[in-house]
């Protein structure tokens, strides 16, 4: 029970016991296993509650705040193109955001002084100093690309219930992380992958990249199997939308700049050359968010 409580504290606040302070290797390993067991039990409990008729959502989610008591909890997942990315799922609007963390070098570290205003500046309100003054820039991201990063290499020969699909993805990335750790090191697990995939807001996007099959015995009444045909169709549609001139006009300093770089002479380019540059830039941007196994098949 203690390990489950500690797991709940970690998921709610991002705080967990610092096991590196334990100098005795055997004891440190035992504590890690103890905490991992708590993570497993906590995730299993959350999964059960999400799919049980005896639980319901209560209360109104608060606004996103980086500094409030109900602060934004940022999770790290294996990202597209084998990048390590940070994502946050906003309970307020069920949208997914990619987090870019900008932190100055140590000699130039910054902190923030935050005052409590309640919407109105108050000179008598106590403030607080935030030691980590890194900037966190949140950008909406299509869940398709995050799901691809998590599921692209799961065995696509079989249909899975949602919980089995999520566990397969979690185990796959845990093995990859363990393989990347030098000899003698210990890999940290990905405790949030399974509940993230089973979240209703994420599961709703699975039919975009999976074939589905009805199954009464499954918790969700549905089985899933990764479909490269559906994935390629989604990527084609995404590329077509990005290649439109309206996108270039709306983002002249980002997408538009990349299009101009692709042209030999942006000032004298023909309409056909501009359209080709837009299509190639859109293709490159989509590929940047695709895992290698998906990118190779789609690019071909």
The main pleated sheet reads as: 4 strands, antiparallel
Please indicate the percent range of residues in DSSP E strands (runs of 2 or more).
15-25%
Query: What is the succession of H and E elements?
Result: HHEEEEEEHEHHHEEHHHHH
Distance between the termini: 52 Å
Question: How are strands sequenced across the largest beta sheet?
Answer: 1-2-3-6
Number of strands: 9
The number of helices is 11
Fraction of residues in helices? 40-55%
Low-confidence spans: pLDDT under 50, at least 5 residues? 58-71
Mean pLDDT: 77
Structural class: alpha+beta
Shape: globular
- The gyration radius over C-alpha positions equals 23 Å
Written account of the structure:
With 300 residues, the chain is α+β, with helices and mostly antiparallel strands. Among the domains are: 1-57; 75-142, no CATH class; 229-299, no CATH class. The chain is built from eleven helices and nine strands. The chain has helices at residues 2-13, 25-50, 143-151, 162-179, 193-198, 200-203, 228-242, 245-250, 255-262, 271-287, 292-299, and strands at 75-78, 84-90, 95-102, 112-115, 127-130, 135-140, 160-161, 210-214, 222-226. It has a four-stranded antiparallel sheet. Strands 7-9-8 form a three-stranded antiparallel sheet. Strand 2 (84-90) and strand 3 form a beta hairpin. The longest helix has 26 residues, at 25-50. It is globular. The chain starts with a helix and ends with a helix. Pfam families: Mitofissin. InterPro entries: Mitofissin (IPR013726), RNase_H2_suB (IPR040456).
């Amino acid at each position: 029970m203690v390990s489950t409580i500690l797991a709940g504290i970690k998921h709610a606040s991002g705080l967990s016991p610092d096991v590196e302070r334990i100098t005795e290797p055997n004891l440190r390993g035992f504590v890690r296993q103890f905490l991992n067991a708590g993570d497993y039990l906590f995730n299993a409990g959350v999964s059960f509650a999400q799919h049980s008729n005896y639980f319901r959502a209560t209360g109104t989610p608060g606004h996103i705040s980086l500094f409030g008591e109900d602060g934004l909890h940022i999770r790290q997942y294996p990202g597209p193109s084998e990048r390590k990315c940070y994502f946050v799922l906003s309970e307020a609007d069920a949208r997914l955001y990619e987090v870019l963390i900008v932190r100055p070098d140590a000699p130039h570290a910054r902190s923030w002084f935050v005052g409590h205003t309640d919407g109105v500046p108050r000179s008598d309100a106590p403030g607080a100093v935030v030691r980590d003054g890194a900037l966190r820039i949140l950008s909406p991201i299509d869940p398709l690309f995050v799901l691809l990063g998590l599921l692209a290499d799961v065995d696509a020969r079989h249909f899975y219930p949602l919980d089995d699909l999520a566990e397969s993805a979690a185990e796959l990335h845990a093995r990859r992380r363990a393989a990347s750790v030098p000899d003698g090191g210990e890999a940290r697990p990905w405790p949030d992958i399974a509940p993230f995939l089973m979240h209703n807001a994420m599961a709703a996007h699975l039919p975009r990249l999976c074939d589905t099959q009805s199954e009464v015995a499954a918790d969700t009444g549905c089985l899933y199997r990764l479909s490269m045909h559906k994935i390629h169709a989604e990527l084609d549609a995404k590329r077509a939308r990005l290649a439109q001139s309206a996108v270039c006009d709306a983002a002249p300093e980002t997408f538009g700049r990349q299009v101009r770089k692709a042209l030999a002479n942006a000032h004298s380019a023909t309409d056909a050359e501009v359209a080709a540059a837009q299509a190639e830039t859109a293709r490159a941007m989509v590929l940047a968010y695709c895992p290698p196994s998906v990118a190779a098949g789609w690019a071909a």
